[in-house]
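BUG: 3D viewer hangs when loading the predicted structure for this chain

Environment: internal workstation, default settings.
Expected: structure renders.
Actual: progress bar stalls at 90%.

Input used:
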Amino acid sequence: MLNFVRSRTQQRSTRSMSLGGMDYPDPKKKSSFVGKIILAAVLTALCILVLKRSSSFNAPSPFSHHEHGVTHALVTGGAGYIGSHASFRLLKDSYRVTIVDNLSWGNLGAVKVLQKSFPEAGRLQFIYADLGDPKAVNKIFSENSFDAVMHFAAVAYVGESTLDPLKYYHNITSNTLVVLEAMAAHGVKTLIYSSTCATYGEPEKMPITETTVQVPINPYGKAKKMAEDIILDFSKNSDMAVMILRYFIVIGSDPEGRLGEAPRPELREHGRISGACFDAARGIIPGLKVKGTDYDTPDGTCIRDYIDVTDLVDAHVKALEKAVPKKVGIYNVGTGKGRSVKEFVEACKKATGKDIKVDFLPRRPGDYAKVFSDPSKIAWELNWAARYTNLTESLQIAWRWQKSHRDGYGTA
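Structure tokens produced before the viewer hung:
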């Protein structure tokens, strides 16, 4: 009997869900289905709300489009010694700056100083990338709208270039070609190229002018001249504005003490003479090694033109301001005065207050006796002249930074 009642109940239940051959859903199932729709709608609304509150959803990156009255400069090697000083000056002058650096020589700590000094949105971005990777470089250009490129990125040690020449041809010449191709493909019309007096080699006549014949004698100078030749050949059939700056030995640091030169330990062996002097003064190395005392100079040591980094950066900014489409400007950037290595060492001793031990050694391969510039062309055409010409004072400024940053920029 009980089974019969259950069966009749089930039949009534079944009949209640069917009428005239039409099936109707179970109310419980319908309620569950509607709930799922409501939940999906709520979640979608929340996602849209989160996206709308993000700055990237509201507007494209300020780096990805041109803005009237704002010049967006790509600074290659902008985490390095010269590049970081140039980036600071550009930011100070209200440029928008993108730094591209693989940090093989540069310091992330320098980038952090720049970010802290200019924290406003749309002022500065750092991209970790290698210019030797064409796909990465093309991606950077496709995602950003650059108005100009300041190309600093390069290995730059004469002695090392004689030991590992292929590294220099690849890093300097090949990478410059990659940058130039990306500029051409994406319509970037202004290039400020960081070159060197090493392209001149050892001219018979001093001072060096921009018309002095270029006969480089080491792979560093040869690689830079090759890069120059590529740029000049391309410019003949282009409306690109090109400025090539050939500069001499760079010293000094930011007068306000925000930035300085901080090569990593493994790079010190081939580094600048100022870095070696400071390392000797701090006791990091036992003394200073002067290579070559038998050159045809008054005291037997090499004569060079030492340019303060602040003056050098000023020359780059003036070159950018004066760049003209379909024109090429080539300029020597120096003080016009040569000083011997022995003079430099005495100035470093005075600046640091340390009696630095000096060892005199045989010549270094690839060096030349005497190089200093005639800066009259850049003075006439760009209204530029070196202001920080006191060797001891420039070294004193750099020494203050060295003393307050004993570990460089520290670990970043």
